[in-house]
Specification:
Blueprint: H1 4-12, E1 22-27, H2 40-44, E2 49-55, E3 58-63, E4 67-71, E5 76-80, E6 88-94, E7 99-104, E8 110-114, H3 137-144, H4 151-156, H5 166-176, H6 189-208, E9 246-250, E10 253-257
Antiparallel strand pairs: 1-6, 2-3, 3-4, 4-8, 5-7, 6-7, 9-10
This protein binds a DNA duplex (16 and 16 nucleotides) through helix 5.
Length: 263
DNA sequence: CCTGTGCCCTGACAGC
DNA sequence: TGCTGTCAGGGCACAG
């Protein structure tokens, strides 16, 4: 579900928990993407929430000692003061009467404590942040030389550029007129410039609009995003010009594109 | 090394 | 009604 904009919007709406102390941790599920650590509750209780940030699609909660890493997978939600529901896997009670609930229908998400970010195996190997200056047309051009796999699969691979998921990749390739099937190594300098620029633009715009809510996504206040109304191809049968939108699985993921626009 | 496939899990929806 | 198949925003293990 959540790609970079959605994760950023969750982080942005978590402000209220800053400087609270973790008083109690209730774990209902034995396992999410991987088994929940037996020691998780002990590692969290008594610690204070210092700062909230994002790395790739991870929510990073800096504690007075250590870090709590949360990945939302496809259907994960992190909600403040939510009423109890099915699939509430972890509930964190905070000082001041606040609670943080991790709810995840499909359990593809992840919650893990880490002493330090540098040694976290979950963050190891992640690529560059697309909204940072290091990611630019030149970076994209240089790093795709000789790459045979298609550009769509390349952009989805978190070892290169992080944060992009299936929706934003489909959208940005459409906006740039680039076919999802084009080999990454065949992207020219001009197209690399345009791709990098449009990726930054669409991510920023999506964050401004509160992310995209297809079905599950909610921010920490349980609010939906609005960016799904701006889609050009994802989940659509026609683009805004009336062109037919094609659909096919690419690398196991549903892929939307328009032949008349993308080459 | 790189690439493609299947799997983890639940729920919604279409078709019979 | 209820069965079956397919699909879903992610990421990993594995085979070739």
């Amino acid at each position: 579900m959540p790609e970079l904009p959605e994760v950023q919007c969750v982080v942005n709406t978590l402000n209220r928990i800053q400087s609270r102390t973790i008083e109690r941790v209730t774990i209902n599920a034995k396992q999410l993407r991987e088994p929940l650590s037996d020691t998780l509750a002990d590692q969290l209780v008594g610690k204070r929430i210092v700062r909230l940030s994002r790395r790739a699609k991870f929510i990073v909660i800096e504690l007075s000692e250590g870090f709590l890493l949360i990945h939302l997978g496809m259907t994960g939600k992190l909600l403040i003061n939510a009423a109890a529901q099915n699939h509430d896997h972890v509930i964190i009670d905070l000082s001041g009467g606040l609670s943080l609930t991790y709810n995840d229908t499909r359990r593809f998400g992840l919650i893990a404590y880490s002493e330090c970010l540098e040694s976290s195996r979950h963050l190891a190997g992640l690529g560059v942040e697309p909204l940072e200056p290091v990611f630019c047309g030149q970076w994209l051009f240089d790093n795709t030389r000789g790459v045979k796999r298609n550009i769509k699969t390349y952009l989805l691979d978190q070892r290169h550029v992080v944060g992009l998921g299936n929706i934003y990749v489909c959208e940005v390739l459409y906006l740039c007129g680039i076919s999802p099937f084009r080999p990454a190594g065949a992207i020219g300098e001009q197209d690399a410039e345009m791709l990098a620029r449009e990726i930054k633009k669409i991510l920023r715009k999506a964050i401004d609009l509160g992310g995209s809510s297809i079905s599950d996504y909610r921010d920490a206040n349980n609010a939906k995003g609005d960016f799904q109304q701006r889609f050009h191809v994802y989940g659509r049968e026609e683009d805004r010009l009336g062109n037919e939108v094609n659909y096919q699985k690419v690398g196991g993921r549903g892929t939307f594109w328009v032949d008349a626009i993308q080459a």
